[in-house]
Amino acid sequence: MAAFLNAVPVAGVAEVLGLLDGALHHVALVGGGGKTTLMHGIADALPGPTVLTCTTKMGADQHWGKALLVAPTDDEVLAVLAGDGRALVVGSVDGPKAVGILPTRADELFALGVHVVAESDGSRRRPAKAPQWYEPVLASTVDLVVCVIGADALDRTIEDQCHRPLLVG
Asked: What is the pTM (predicted TM-score) of this model?
């Protein structure tokens, strides 16, 4: 299936993953490069209001024109979703980085009756990643985990392309 997903336009991945079945979904994206692009592609394809978020860190500029909400209340989230349909929710902004929300907060957002698509792993802008024992940071309501690897990692050395290459075994 991985090779097939590679050939599908980003917007079509939601369909390939079975996310257009009419149910609400909480998707976690983990691994290396391409998570942000995939997050936006999936969110844009999902019918109905969708929260984009992260449970680690991501670039504060990665909202791609969607409303950026910093530590919002549930009512603030619902108000923005009622208008725009999509919003990036983060816990705080620290310089160029958006600091993610706790997994329990992601569960609370999902409980509002909206789709949630979360970056649940950081790779320090590397196309591949080897996780530590405490990663990924997943919320309890996640119903689909998608592991991502950037094409830049293919046919390259692990040491050059991987975050934490010594953990690859």
From this structure: 0.87
16-58: pLDDT as tens digits: 999 999 999 999 999 887 888 899 999 999 999 999 999 988 8
> Are the C-beta atoms of residues 35 and 43 closer than 8 Å to each other?
no
- 84 residue type, one letter: D
Q: What is the pLDDT of residues 61-73, one digit of tens each?
A: 888 889 999 999 9
Secondary structure of the chain in HEC code, one letter for each residue:
CHHHHHCCCHHHHHHHCCCCCCCCCEEEEEECCCHHHHHHHHHHHCCCCEEEEECCEEECCCCCCCEEEECCCHHHHHHHHHHCCEEEEECEEECCEEECCCHHHHHHHHHCCCEEEEECCCCCCCCEECCCCCCCCCCCCCCEEEEECCHHHCCCCHHHHEECHHHCC
Instruction: Dig out the tokens for 66 from the structure.
Output: 């969607």
Question: String of b and e for 118-142 (b: at least 16 CB within 10 Å)?
Answer: bbbbbbeebbbbbbeeebbbbbebb
Between CA 30 and CA 121 the distance in angstroms is 5
> CA Rg, the chain, in Å?
15
